[in-house]
Amino acid sequence: MAAPCTENNHKQGKLEFALDVPFPSSLEASIALQSLSPDRELRKGGISKELTVSGSTLSVRWRADEARILRVSVGSFMDHLSLVMETMEAFGPPVTR
């Protein structure tokens, strides 16, 4: 889902996108967060990405200066997310610690 553009970001010309991904459990959401967090944006300026977990939902928020940069970042993240989810499905539910 796309996040509404805030007044402050609209004045700065920033684009925003938000994605909420539900997982079967909070442990699986945390595993996905840990797997996806190390991937920082290659470009230092022009985009920011924030990942958080609330319950069993992984939330991702992007802010970017240009639509092209936002599109590339979201597309790359979706590829990584798909790989993480396929891997988790292949190995089955995590064992509680």
Automatic annotation (TrEMBL):
What keywords were assigned to this record?
A: Cytoplasm, Nucleus, tRNA processing
Which GO BP terms, alphabetically? tRNA processing; tRNA threonylcarbamoyladenosine metabolic process
**Family matches, as Pfam families:** Pcc1 (PF09341)
Tell where it localizes. Cytoplasm; Nucleus
- Nucleotide-binding in keyword set: no
Q: Which GO terms describe its cellular component?
A: cytoplasm; EKC/KEOPS complex; nucleus
Q: Classify the main location.
A: cytoplasm
Listed Gene3D superfamilies? Alpha-D-phosphohexomutase, C-terminal domain
Matching entries from InterPro entries are given as: CTAG/Pcc1 (IPR015419)
Entry-linked PANTHER family: EKC/KEOPS COMPLEX SUBUNIT PCC1 FAMILY MEMBER, EKC_KEOPS COMPLEX SUBUNIT LAGE3
What family does the Swiss-Prot or TrEMBL record give for this protein?
A: Belongs to the CTAG/PCC1 family.
**Partners and quaternary state?**
Component of the EKC/KEOPS complex composed of at least GON7, TP53RK, TPRKB, OSGEP and LAGE3; the whole complex dimerizes.
* Chain's role: Component of the EKC/KEOPS complex that is required for the formation of a threonylcarbamoyl group on adenosine at position 37 (t(6)A37) in tRNAs that read codons beginning with adenine. The complex is probably involved in the transfer of the threonylcarbamoyl moiety of threonylcarbamoyl-AMP (TC-AMP) to the N6 group of A37. LAGE3 functions as a dimerization module for the complex.
**Protein name, as recorded:** L antigen family member 3
Species name for this entry?
Answer: Coregonus suidteri
